Recover the amino acids of this structure.
């Protein structure tokens, strides 16, 4: 099978969609006849020894979101020559925008089926930039119209399906969950993370993700400040980079949370270092109302670390409170109260972490086996219609 994965984000951009596409490409590159990633050019991308091919087109930074890039693939003659000669049996897009439009063009040109995965709360993204409900609604309508053109539309969770329905999509939806890598406990990784970030022996609360206000990081800092005021010991580690990193640091300072209390690691690229943080942490604190099916919750669970999520959020779909994770209301007081319970009951938290490992992760090899089976059925159906 020859597969094209189309995405507007890819490594070294470290958002969830880029990481999903990377995992798809690595797994499919090992077991498929060919796997291509079609994406805007990222100059910092390491290209050596990859099991897949990257067909990228010239790009430029997206205004107000310079970590992302866009481009005009139809104006890049080198790209057009490469994509013309790339043999594909199926196209899979992870974005409705530039790469997604190119996926639709290529699927029609090559006469192959098109799968589209709806990952994100695009209305929220539009509103964060445009500050207009009307324009954001128009953007959501554009997204719906795009996915209606796909031969199959996939989502990563039932909650994500509800978001797409809320945007006005009426077609068939298939749920195909994201996965995570299989992970083993490693004292060496824990020691590496401890040394690298000067972690104390106190309990560790961890956030992994973009330094972006849409992740509800304000809630984490305010809750942690309440804990400190009540005399609780611990360190908060914020792992990631993003557009609001400086403002997040300023808020921590204003709450009198110094570097001995809040550690901002920046981007953690090395897998062993990130795994060390997951394993060293007593709890992943992820109060995002934006994310649909965050990979970080699954990655932490794979290393026996449970998560605290906001009750009723899309991210909380996989968690039963007190059994394989913790849930809180979206208030600083309630998040602080749940964190205080966790710090008072660390042995119980470890038991919850073991349950999280048993119930939350699906591993990429299992996910990709399911995905390839779906591809085969769709290719066969497309060939007979």
């Amino acid at each position: 099978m020859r597969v094209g994965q189309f995405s507007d984000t890819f490594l070294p951009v470290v958002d969830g969609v880029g990481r999903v596409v990377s995992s798809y490409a690595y797994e499919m590159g090992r077991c498929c006849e060919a796997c291509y990633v079609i994406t805007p050019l990222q100059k910092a991308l390491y290209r050596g020894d990859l099991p897949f091919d990257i067909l990228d087109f010239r790009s430029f930074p997206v205004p107000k979101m310079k970590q992302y890039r866009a481009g005009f693939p139809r104006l890049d003659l080198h790209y057009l020559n490469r994509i013309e000669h790339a043999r594909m049996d199926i196209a899979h897009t992870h974005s409705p925008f530039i790469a997604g439009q190119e996926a639709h063009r290529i699927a029609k040109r090559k006469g192959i089926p098109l799968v589209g995965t709806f990952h994100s709360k695009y209305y929220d993204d539009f509103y964060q930039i445009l500050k207009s409900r009307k324009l954001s609604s128009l953007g959501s309508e554009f997204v719906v119209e795009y996915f209606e053109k796909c031969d199959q539309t996939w989502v990563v969770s039932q909650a994500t399906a509800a978001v797409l329905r809320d945007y006005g999509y009426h077609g068939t939806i298939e749920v195909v969950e994201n996965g995570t890598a299989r992970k083993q406990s490693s004292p060496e990784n824990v020691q590496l993370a401890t040394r690298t970030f000067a972690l104390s022996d106190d309990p560790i609360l961890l956030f992994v993700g973009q330094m972006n206000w849409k992740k509800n990081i304000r809630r984490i800092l305010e809750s942690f400040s309440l804990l400190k005021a009540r005399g609780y010991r611990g360190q908060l580690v914020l792992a990631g980079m993003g557009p609001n990193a400086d403002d997040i640091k300023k808020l921590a300072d204003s709450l009198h949370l110094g570097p001995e209390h809040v550690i901002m690691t920046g981007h953690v690229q090395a897998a062993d270092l990130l795994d060390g943080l997951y394993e060293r942490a007593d709890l992943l604190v992820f109060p995002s109302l934006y994310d649909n099916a965050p990979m970080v919750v699954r990655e932490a669970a794979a290393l026996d670390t449970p998560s605290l999520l906001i009750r009723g959020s899309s991210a909380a779909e996989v968690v039963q409170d007190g059994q394989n994770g913790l849930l809180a209301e979206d208030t600083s007081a309630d998040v602080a109260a749940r964190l205080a319970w966790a710090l008072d009951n660390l042995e119980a938290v470890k038991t919850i972490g073991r349950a999280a490992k048993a119930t939350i992760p699906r591993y990429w090899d299992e996910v990709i086996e399911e995905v390839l089976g779906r591809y085969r059925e769709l290719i066969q159906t497309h060939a007979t219609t």
Q: What stands out?
A: The radius of gyration is 21 Å.
